[in-house]
Amino acid sequence: MPNAKVLESKKAVVEQLTGKIQESTAVVFIDYKGISVAQDTELRKQFREAGVEYSVVKNTLTNFAAKNAGYDFSKVLNGTTAMASTTGDPIAPARIVAEFAKKNKLKTLGIKGGIVEGSVLSGEQLTGFSELPSKNALVASVLGTFLAPISSLAFVLDQIRMQKDGSAAAAE
User: Fold this and answer.
1) How far is CA 115 from CA 72, 145, 161, in A?
2) How far apart are CA 68 and CA 17, in angstroms?
3) pTM of the full predicted structure?
4) pLDDT tier at 167 (50, 70, 90 boundaries)?
């Protein structure tokens, strides 16, 4: 039986992880096996820039925290596991991992599973999500689609005005 001080520190870690899982828009569990220190540093930098918190914690503590939050990841939390969580763009953690693995040709770096906005997803589903553009890019695309007819109308009206101005100048 571990001493009381160790047990209390582990309980505090579980409580902290439970809160993080509950507050996050996305939590992604990553298998980071085979990644070098330099690559890990670069990956952490990309996570920081995107507002994603990345940490390596014990699988048993993470599993307790996930169960406290209402999820069961006992089949996913084995081996080398890191957790990336965010309260921002829910696709960011999966996209960063997938792009990093592809850019560095890392076949061992992969997504084990996770949660996106309360839904439990497999590693394959999260990898599929990682190919989607960011939320801001999707909003910009939709707004561009809405603005296209208005922009076309403005262009046509401007051309008509220019032709009238040109024919009026030629008549003088």
Assistant:
1) 11, 31, 55
2) 9
3) 0.73
4) low
